[in-house]
Request: fold
Amino acid sequence: MIFRIMQVSDPAGDHELKRAAVGYVSEAWNEARLDGVDGDALAQAFLFAALTELVSTYGEEAVARFAEGLAKRIRNGEFSLARATQ
Reply:
């Protein structure tokens, strides 16, 4: 089950905003890596910042319900870039 914590009135506009946001995050990530910041430290900082923003926008309970579904999604490989195939 995937729990969506936001409703979109303009899916096309939302898609473009998310695409722009990913560009900004990628740029910040690359800059930090060039400055020698460890990838694990970055990942934890980005997760903390993301969860903090979601909680301030949607509240703790909504974000907790969203996070409950992450374990299954991780196990299903949704966040794996390289998958082993046989």
Remarks:
- The longest helix spans residues 11-34.
- Helices lie at 11-34, 39-58, 60-68, 70-75.
- The chain has one domain: 11-75.
